[in-house]
Amino acid sequence: MTTFHIELQIDQGEPATLEPLIHKIAVATLKQQRVTAEAVLTILITNDEELQTLNKTYRNEDKPTDVLSFEDGTEWPDGKLYLGDIAISHQMAERQAAQGGHMLLDEVALLTAHGVLHLLGHDHAEPEEKAIMWQAQGAVLAQFGIHVSPAE
């Protein structure tokens, strides 16, 4: 059985109650994508300010965003594959959940699946890529009875 190591970093003031859901969604996404290597990734739950700083530094966009993924793909000496890092803005997730008329947990689940798919090389810049990525994240979320779509 493949082992996945998911390190969650939750900033002070952000809800630690999200931790079990994030872990389950990340693992389900890795399994759905048939990741067979022992894999490691980090997920940070933080705020708009931190996401804006990361977005400006790494994407040259000076605005907050909901989720950022930093793909790595390095194989560690012990054979584990380091997939990379994901950062999620809890504040943005709250706003998007309110706008979409669904629960915050559902939005965080969506952002988690979305971020993991990016670490695995998925993108949504082109319509064909987007259709594949949206189908994959929808399939993962459906396993948990979650039926939300990404904010456009």
Radius of gyration: 15 Å
Q: How many separate domains?
A: 1
The helix/strand order is EHEHEEHHH
**Spatial order of the strands forming the largest sheet:** 1-2-4-3
Put simply, the count of helices is 5
- Give the distance, in angstroms, between the N- and C-terminal Cα atoms: 37 Å
Describe this structure in words.
- By secondary structure, the chain is an alpha/beta fold.
- It has one domain: Collagenase (Catalytic Domain) (3-Layer(aba) Sandwich).
- The protein has helices at residues 19-32, 48-59, 90-100, 104-119, 127-142; strands at 4-10, 39-46, 67-75, 81-89.
- α3 (90-100) packs across α4 (104-119).
Short description:
It contains five helices and four strands. With 152 residues, it is α/β, with parallel strands linked by helices. A hairpin with a 5-residue loop joins strand 3 and strand 4.
